[in-house]
């Protein structure tokens, strides 16, 4: 019994220490500094209560970034999961190039967000502009110089990066569906949509729970793609919450206000994702 305990702590101990030092302690210190006037430099820190939170809610730029981030999250969650599930359905069919397609669809996820942003910045600025000049389509010009098209640019970038990752999750779920059920439904005369609606969707629901959680949390916390593609421009019209927090902390040296904004973001993401997981899990039980 003692040997088992020693083995357990040998394996779990380093992870717990790393979690404590890298995640838990910074979180607690961040919450503490959100109630102070710390600017990141001075050692004399004063307790100022809720002033930083009041300042955060009075900051119109922060509120605008929340609205933009919320819209981006709603659209990206829908688009990403539809694409991921659609790709999974495609590559689980009996095609000779299945393995090649899986590799191609997953490869963008291996590229860093900053690099992806610069790649798509080149596509939107250079290739789209060239196509616009050749075809006379004005909507292809200045794609990133407008907040509306910049929004769609971020959606395209995010979809191109994460759809393949979600595809892998959905592939695992689809391949775990008992083939007897599918074959029995085909014998009974069920068409493709009926099999999809009555067999595949209900049995793949746990994968939807995981994928929705991942896309929700990643979309709210998106920073590197936002930085490299639009840098929040033009005029902060595509600035997301993470970028607003970063600028508050390191551009304006308002660490206390930035920590308050970060804690607000933490609460928003926590409440939304926990609610989503609860509702999705409840649906799984009902199914």
What does this structure look like?
- The chain is mostly helical.
- It has a single domain, classed as MetI-like (MetI-like fold).
- It contains eleven helices and no strands.
- The mean pLDDT is 88.
- Main β-sheet description: none
The Rg value, from CA coordinates, equals 23 Å
**What's the shape?**
globular
Whole-number mean pLDDT: 88
Query: Runs with pLDDT <50, length 5+?
Result: none
CATH class: Mainly Alpha
Number of strands: 0
The tally of domains stands at 1
Quaternary status of these chains? Answer: single chain
- Can you tell me the CATH superfamily? MetI-like
Summed up, the helix count is 11
**What is the level-2 CATH architecture name?**
Orthogonal Bundle
Strand content: under 5%
Class from secondary-structure proportions: mainly alpha
What is the CA-CA span between the terminal residues? 41 Å
List the helices and strands and how they pair.
Layout: H1 2-33, H2 51-58, H3 60-91, H4 98-106, H5 113-135, H6 147-175, H7 179-187, H8 192-220, H9 224-229, H10 241-250, H11 255-286
Helix pairs in contact: 2-11, 3-6, 3-8, 4-6, 6-8, 8-11, 10-11
Provide a short characterization of the protein structure:
By secondary structure, this protein is mostly helical. The protein has helices at residues 2-33, 51-58, 60-91, 98-106, 113-135, 147-175, 179-187, 192-220, 224-229, 241-250, 255-286. The chain is globular.
Looking at this protein, list some descriptive labels:
287 residues; mainly alpha; MetI-like fold; 76% helix
């Amino acid at each position: 019994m003692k040997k088992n305990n020693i083995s357990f702590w040998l394996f779990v101990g380093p992870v717990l220490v790393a979690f404590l030092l890298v995640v838990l302690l910074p979180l607690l210190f961040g919450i503490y500094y959100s109630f102070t006037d710390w600017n990141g430099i001075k050692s004399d820190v004063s307790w100022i209560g809720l002033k930083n939170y009041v300042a955060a809610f009075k900051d119109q730029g922060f509120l605008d970034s929340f609205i933009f981030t919320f819209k981006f999250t709603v659209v990206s969650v829908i688009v990403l999961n539809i694409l991921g599930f659609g790709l999974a359905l495609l590559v689980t069919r009996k095609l000779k190039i299945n393995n090649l397609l899986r590799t191609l669809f997953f490869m963008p996820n291996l590229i860093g967000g900053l690099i992806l942003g610069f790649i798509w910045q080149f596509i939107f600025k250079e290739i789209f502009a060239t196509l616009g000049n050749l075809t006379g389509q004005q909507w292809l010009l200045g794609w990133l110089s407008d907040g509306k098209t910049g929004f769609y640019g971020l959606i395209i970038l995010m979809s191109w990066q994460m759809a393949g990752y979600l595809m892998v999750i959905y592939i695992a779920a689809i391949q775990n569906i008992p083939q007897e059920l599918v074959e029995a439904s085909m014998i009974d005369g069920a068409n493709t949509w009926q099999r999809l609606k009555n067999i595949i969707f209900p049995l793949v629901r746990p994968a939807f729970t995981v994928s929705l959680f991942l896309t929700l949390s990643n979309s709210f916390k998106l920073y590197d793609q936002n930085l490299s593609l639009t840098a929040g421009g033009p005029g902060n019209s595509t600035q997301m919450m993470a970028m607003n927090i970063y600028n508050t902390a390191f551009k304006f040296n308002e660490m206390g206000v930035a920590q308050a904004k970060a804690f607000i973001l933490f609460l928003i993401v926590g409440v939304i994702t926990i609610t989503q997981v609860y509702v999705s899990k409840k649906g799984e039980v009902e199914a």
